[in-house]
Structure formats: C-alpha cells, structure tokens
Design a protein that fits this description.
29% of the residues lie in helices and 31% in strands. Helix 5 runs antiparallel to helix 6. It is α+β, with helices and mostly antiparallel strands. The protein has one domain: Pnp Oxidase, Chain A. It has a 6-stranded antiparallel barrel, surrounded by 4 helices. It comes from Tamaricihabitans halophyticus. Pfam families: FMN_bind_2 (PF04299). InterPro entries: Split_barrel_FMN-bd, TR_PAI2-type.
C-alpha cells in the first residue's frame, strides 16, 4: 500500500478504531504457484486486549469455511495481507465552488501484514467463532445472546477453520480532503453526507480530521 504523508492517520488509535468498526476484511495470501487468493471474512481484534493503544504484539483472530481451499496455503506461505476499509465516497467538483476542477475519492483504509497460524482443536475454533459474534453483538442495541444457540455453533465447528494473525506491519491512508481549504472541505463533507452510500460515517470521519 502506498502511503501519502498528507493523508496519514492522525494516530494509531484511528487505525485501531477503523479495524474494530470495520472487521469484514479481505485476507490475501499467495501459494507457491498461481495467483494470490483472497477471501472476505470477519477478522477481529483480540477480545482480551481492551483498551488497545498499540499494534505491538497484537494477534488478530479470524475464521473461514473449511471448503475454502485458501487456508491450505497458510502452512506453505504463512505471510498474509489483511485489508480493512472504512467509509468511502465519490467527491464531485459540484461541491467545490470553483473551476476548472477534477473529481476524486475520499476513503480510509488500513493494510496489515502478518504471520498466519491455523488454530487447532474444536474448543479453540469455537472460541474464535463465539468471540467474533460477541465482538459484533456488543456494538448493537439490543444485542443478541448466543446462549440458546451454542449447540448449533458447536455443530458447525468441523466445517470451519480458525486462524490467528500476528501483526507485523501496518499501513494506512485516511484521504479526507485534507488538501482542500476549510470552506471547500465543509461543502464536500455536506455533499458526501447526502450523496455517498456511507455518507454519514464518512462525513463524521472528515469532521474529526478538520484542522
């Protein structure tokens, strides 16, 4: 991932928050032959590391369907790339208030490379599955309790492969019109709030990066 100094994350905390709020990651691996493989799966921050203020010695947790052959690549090539994306939106020159002009795209993304390791055993795999559900339900109101469905979860374990990724490098881009004058940024933010599918979230992220 190419990083731009003008679009740097203001803090590690912003990177961590993006990963926590957008855990549906693209997991990319490469076997010894053929093209890289990619799978979209939930990958969560460690539930026992709260609050988290640094990427140092962080291990992320994920799982995928056993029928997906990608997990078989992990032993041969244990280096993986995790791509987490936040809100994004097309920026139209309509909101600039000047011409000539060109459109652009505002977005936030975090790329993590790490060493992947398969998690062995039904109990440990089930723990990853349940931790993933807890991570997502803890953000909802009302939240759903899995207590009455644990037998159902246990019956699915044999069809799931869980894994952990030890974080090695973290790169990020928070491109949020930082190169535009304040009054233009405000117009862009207001326009995106109304026009982008993730408009409200993107506008709020831009507001946090004002000034």
């Amino acid at each position: 991932m190419h990083e731009f100094a003008r679009y740097a994350a203001s803090s590690t905390a912003d990177e961590i928050q993006l990963v926590r709020q957008n855990p549906f990651a693209l997991v990319v691996s490469s076997a010894s032959a053929g093209a890289p493989a990619g799978t979209h799966v939930p990958v969560i921050l460690p539930p026992d590391r709260e609050p988290l203020d640094s990427w140092q010695e962080v291990t992320l947790l994920g799982h995928m369907a056993r029928v997906n052959p990608q997990w078989q690549d992990f032993a041969a090539s244990p280096r993986v790339l995790l791509v987490f994306t936040g809100p994004d939106g097309y920026v139209s020159p309509h909101s600039y208030g000047y011409t000539p002009a060109v459109p652009t795209w505002n977005y936030a993304a975090v790329h993590i490379t790490g060493t992947v390791e398969l998690i062995e055993g039904a109990a440990a795999t089930l723990e990853v599955m349940e931790s993933t559900v807890h991570a997502m339900e803890s953000r909802r109101e009302p939240s759903w309790s899995m207590a009455s469905s644990r037998e159902k979860f246990a019956s699915l374990v044999e069809h799931v492969v869980a894994f952990r990724v030890q974080v090695r490098t973290v790169q990020s881009v928070f491109k949020l019109s930082q190169d535009m004058p304040p009054e233009v940024r405000e117009r862009v933010r207001d326009d995106l709030r109304e026009t982008a599918p993730a408009g409200p979230a993107l506008a709020e992220l831009m507001r946090r990066y004002d000034g």
